[in-house]
Design a protein that fits this description.
Layout lengths: L4 H4 L7 E11 L5 E12 L4 E5 L6 H8 L7 E6 L2 E2 L5 H7 L3 E4 L3 H4 L6 H13 L3 H14 L5 H5 L8 H13 L5 E5 L7 H18 L2 E6 L2 H7 L2 E6 L2 E7 H6 L4 H8 L38 H5 L5 E2 L5 E2 L7
Parallel strand pairs: 3-8, 3-9, 6-7, 7-8
Antiparallel strand pairs: 1-2, 1-4, 4-5, 9-10, 10-12, 11-12
The structure holds adenosine-5'-triphosphate and magnesium ion.
The site of magnesium ion has 2 residues, from helix 2.
Length: about 325
């Protein structure tokens, strides 16, 4: 069976629709935090949405919610026409064929006592069935697709015999074994050697183009978000600050927080960032009010501390949540 059939399917609705998503956690001290707060977005078929924001802004939590590793406290998630917000049991098992996760640390996501082929034979057999020779041919296809050739040699290798980049390729091949439509890639290159990062991003880009896969690409790094993302969504303390087509966001950032992030990117030509008023960690407390960036924002006025601004459409698919857009 060809993996390419996915690319041919089309439908008008976005593949992923997220509305007013929220997640609250209770900390040990008893207080509640809300690291995902009223987040809405869509991802089209074959589209990559890059999710950027500093540590603790809720990126991984959104990824885990979308894969239904976590169940949201509020909101709604529809993927490929199915409401997955509260699914369980058999429906959740079926959903695992639609959506898969690529983790930051490929070593931790592979089994050290299994060979490369062991990692693929089981999911392929379970997903498609078929005679051993057919299953084996699919395993070869998967290894070829992720660039782990010659396949006969790779099949017998254990994770420790592969390089970091090869391990991530194997982990990616395993996610493809169930023919997913949607991948959440959570910092998939940040633990890899700088020299091999570009190769992995290129592979993900090929999977997007050739298989028509959609991605939520989670990263700290605006340069890679700009390269791989079709659109970029900027998160701060669980709230969406700004969303725009990738080039547009990098060329014309409107939100003070995005401007700050861009100015902090190595090699960036953006000198337009305003000085931060204070470098304090984001407040995730459930009782917080207003825009969460206000305590750090040089433009903040009274209203920012009181009310979260609604996202405003500024044209070209660019949306910004800021009371002081004119500034
Ligand atoms: N199960 C949990 N229980 C309590 N708090 C949690 C839980 N999971 C995440 N958090 C908290 O939620 C906040 C957001 O975490 P999250 O991992 O989503 O951030 P992130 O943007 O992925 O950060 P990083 O860039 O460091 O990976 C953090 O303060 C984290 O400690
Ligand atoms: Mg994370």
């Amino acid at each position: 069976m060809s993996l390419n059939h996915l690319a041919q399917e089309s439908s008008g609705a976005p593949l992923v629709q997220v509305e007013h998503l929220a997640m609250r956690f209770r900390l040990r001290g008893g207080q509640w935090i809300r690291p995902v707060d009223d987040v809405s977005f869509t991802i089209d078929r074959g589209e990559v949405l890059a999710l950027v924001g500093e540590s603790g802004s809720g990126k991984t939590t959104i990824g885990r919610l979308l894969l239904r590793i976590l169940e949201p406290s509020a909101g709604r998630m529809v993927v490929d026409g199915r409401d997955i917000t509260h699914i369980r049991g058999r429906q959740l098992a079926e959903y695992r064929r639609v959506a898969q996760m690529i983790f930051q640390d490929p070593f931790a996501s592979l089994n050290p006592v299994k060979t490369a082929e062991d990692h693929l034979l089981f999911p392929v057999r379970k997903h498609r069935g078929g005679r051993p020779a057919e299953v084996s041919a699919v395993v070869d296809d998967l290894l070829t697709r992720v660039g782990l050739t010659p396949v006969a040699e790779t099949r017998r290798k254990y994770p420790h015999e592969l390089s970091g980049g090869q391990r991530q390729r194997l982990a990616i091949a395993r996610t493809l074994a169930v023919e997913p439509r949607f991948l959440v890639a959570d910092e998939p290159i940040s633990m890899l050697d700088v020299s091999i990062r570009a190769g992995i991003l290129k592979l993900l880009n090929e999977l997007k183009r050739e298989l028509g896969l959609s991605f939520l690409y989670i990263t700290h790094d605006l340069a890679s978000a700009r390269y791989f993302g079709d659109r970029i969504m900027v998160l701060y303390a669980g709230k969406v600050m700004e969303t725009a087509p990738a080039r547009e966001l990098v060329a014309h950032p409107r939100h003070p927080y995005t401007r700050l992030l861009l100015a902090a990117t190595p090699g960036s030509s953006h000198q337009g960032a305003l000085p931060e008023t204070a470098n304090i960690p984001p407040n995730l407390s459930e009782s917080r009010q207003g825009c969460p960036f206000a305590p750090r924002c040089p433009l903040a006025t009274e209203i920012c501390h009181e009310t979260m601004p609604a996202a405003e459409d500024v044209g070209s698919g660019h949306r910004v949540a800021c009371h002081h857009l004119e500034a």
